[in-house]
Design brief:
Elements: H1 4-7, E1 13-17, H2 22-35, H3 41-54, E2 59-61, E3 64-68, E4 79-89, E5 99-106, H4 114-125, H5 127-135, H6 139-146, E6 175-181, H7 187-202, E7 208-214, H8 215-221, E8 227-230, H9 232-238, E9 245-247, H10 254-265
Parallel strand pairs: 1-4, 3-5, 6-7, 6-8, 8-9
Antiparallel strand pairs: 2-3, 4-5
Helix pairs in contact: 2-3, 4-7, 5-6, 7-10
């Protein structure tokens, strides 16, 4: 598996980019992946079409959009880009607009970039690192933070320190939770990684497996799951699948995911 620094070269980072709207913002991120040889121009059009078809579910956290589409012939190699906007733009998300950061992903498959997604989810979920990324004066400085030269860690976006860890699920039980997005290779992996952080903290990782998937596959796999976690937009697309569909607004927030998981298990 490739690391974040391998998938996101410094040449794919642009700061203080001006965009008139969300399409131009995604276009700026797409051009960087074309320039670094990861995609063709067609992939940028596919990323825009993904939002047009599925809504602004790619706005995974306040101010952060994670642009992507399905693997396609327009993806020449798995890669990423990072665009920090000079002025925020609206994507149409109910709670996470306006967007100041667009991170784009082009994936050849659903496996090669899982390690990078885990690293990125943790970086964006840490307040001190997120602040350092927002304040980085140059692409080189920002890339250094992404590569691991992190500031002193601040408090995690988690629940109260006094919150008790839930008791283990029924002995011998093994549960599955699905995290769902439009394509199964981007935002669902973000949510999967955040959920796994909470499960690790609870000591539940050996009892609950987490699978990232797309909307079509999720409908077929729903009967295997205790619950499905996703965005509000994708929840509307899924409809009634016979299992609880839980909405998460901030895919990087362990606090919100902790609360959703407690609600799921009534603990």
């Amino acid at each position: 598996m490739e690391d974040l620094k391998d998938l996101l070269p410094v040449e794919a980072v642009r700061l203080d980019v001006r965009a008139a709207d969300w399409r131009e913002a995604i276009g700026a991120a797409g051009r960087l992946m074309v320039e670094t040889g990861a995609t063709t121009d067609e992939y940028t059009r596919e990323m825009v079409a993904n939002v047009e078809e599925n809504g602004p579910y790619i706005v995974i956290a306040p101010g952060v959009a994670f642009a992507h589409s399905r693997p396609s012939p327009a993806v020449l190699s798995t890669g990423m880009s990072w665009v920090r906007l000079a002025e925020p733009v609206e994507f149409g998300h109910e709670s996470n607009d306006p967007v100041t950061l667009v991170v784009a992903l082009a994936a050849q498959d659903s496996a090669a970039h899982t390690s990078a997604m885990a690293s990125l989810a943790r970086l964006l979920g840490d307040p001190a690192t997120a602040a350092a990324l927002a304040a980085a004066p140059t692409p080189e400085a920002l890339h250094a933070v992404l590569a691991g030269e992190r500031p002193e860690e601040g408090p995690e976006k988690s629940g109260p320190a006094t919150a008790s860890e839930p008791a283990e699920p029924r002995a011998g039980s093994l549960h599955k939770i699905l995290t769902v997005c439009g394509n199964g290779v981007g935002t669902s992996l973000f949510l999967k990684n955040t959920l796994e952080q909470v499960l690790d903290r609870w000591g539940w990782s050996r009892f609950v497996t987490v699978e990232a998937t797309d909307t079509i596959s999720a409908k077929g796999k729903a009967s295997e799951a205790v619950a499905l976690l996703t965005s509000r937009e994708i929840a509307r697309t899924l409809g009634d699948v016979g299992r609880p569909v839980k909405v998460v607004q901030d895919f990087t927030s362990t606090a919100e995911v902790d609360a959703v998981l407690r609600d799921t298990y009534d603990v």
